[in-house]
Amino acid sequence: MTGAERIMNARPDFAAIARWIGSGKRVLDLGCGDGTLLDFLRRARAVHGYGIEIDDQKVTECVRSGVNVMQMNLESGLSAFRDGSFDYVILSQTLQAVRHTEDIMREMLRVGREAIVSFPNFGHWSARLQVARGRMPVSAALPYQWFDTPNVHLCTIHDFEALCEKLSIRVLERVVLHGGRPVSVMPNLFGSLAVYRCTSG
Amino acid sequence: MAAKNDQVLSGGSVGAVLAQRARFDVPLRLQSGAELPSFELAYETYGRLNPARSNAVLVCHALNASHHIAGHYADDPENVGWWDNMVGPGKPLDTERFFVVGVNNLGGCHGSTGPMSINPATGKPWGGDFPVVTVEDWVAAQARLADFLGVQRFAAVMGGSLGAMQALQWTISFPERVGHALVIAATPKLSAQNIAFNEVARQAITTDPDFHGGHYYEHGVVPRRGLRVARMIGHITYLSDDVMMEKFGRELRRGTPGFDFNIDFEIESYLRYQGDKFSTYFDANTYLRITKALDYFDPAAAHGGDLSMALAPARARFLVVSFTSDWRFTPARSREIVKALLDNRRDVSYLEIDAPHGHDAFLMDDARYFAAVRAWFGNMLLEGPEQ
Q: Residue B285: enclosing H or E segment and its boundaries?
């Protein structure tokens, strides 16, 4: 399979990320899980990647598939990494589970030239409707009950962009998806997943 | 076949093994400036070297171990290799796939040339005159063994603690000869506290009245008391406070305090037992030299303390493993190595295993640790020397 074919067949949010990333770039994936995204980017884009993951089993999965992984708590900072040592630092569907959101965003743009952030959009109509009906939202994008969710900082597209403004982070590109398809009309209402590419200043 | 499959699933033993010895007659210049005109290395191998000679793994030993990594001796079935849980058919380092080499280091007391060997210049044992050897010297000698075995390039070099220092040094001394390096419970250099413990151990040995400046063989004695205390100190640093408390607690062996200096607490009994056992099989001169090799190891020193520069020549893919309860070589020390490798844009993975056993954890078969090592070796592509 060629890189382009791999991207066509990939998960839509992964495909969006791969389209932004040039061939052979240096990539750091925060909360990389079992290394699926890095493995995909390596095959599709020949990136030189590293992941950070805390979970023992997921770390072992990364090792099994030959993905470079650091078993570290990303909340305690990225001190192992020099300023500007990566082309891209990725936070894929992890933002909502991070405690020190502002610190992570700053660290990402210290270590990387650009940051790629994706998160489930809490502004999607189904979430709004469930809240309007008096219940916490549960959906494909937000599959947890309120009492067992790892998510501590859910946000909407407008919220995230306001944070970027506060931190002087410039949004370079944005893709909003629902059911794997791009959403262009009223994305904060009809999009369930947002993917951003940003840089500082 | 069923029996064999069962063995592979559970991880079997390499079975009865033979220690071998290789002789090298080209002089070896040591870091100290001294020269060994010739030397021998005791070694063992398990598994088969493949036709491409691309599946060899060198396992480096730490302080008190030897070339006897796995299996047992036909005439001594109780003498099981020191890393038998790691190395064997179906084990994390699978001898069905890899050709595994264990070697006793230069200056050792398990068959390689060391202080107990005859000094050709005098016809008597070297004793205290045997030169001080370093990690660099060991690696240089191991490279001679690799040549002898027809291994141009190791698929991997691995070790824990002092063994990890050798794996690290391999990637610096012979970057083209190491495909992968597994660096476990390591440090890029000893701290002042680490050196302090070593110095107490050395003082215990050298102030033993039976030491005789290292020439105790001639006197027909062994500085056993010193070696015993040295080993006790070592054991304290290998275990975590928690595990020691859990294992030995404050139970009184006699039920009540003895108000004397016989054994009251279990930990006293344990340390005495370990010290006694060690002093019957280990050579004091070797112990002195190994602790010095530990103290001197500092690849960054030649680069103004810059470990990233020291590791710049390395080409291997690395797996670095530390254990949270290891207070001898803490995870922070392993992270220094990882950082230096990242600075050099090397392929590296880092595991920080939340294990309670302290420094000794590297010898325990913790499921997470072993699963990761198994996965790492399983993923390893074997390249020929031409690549």
A: helix B284-296
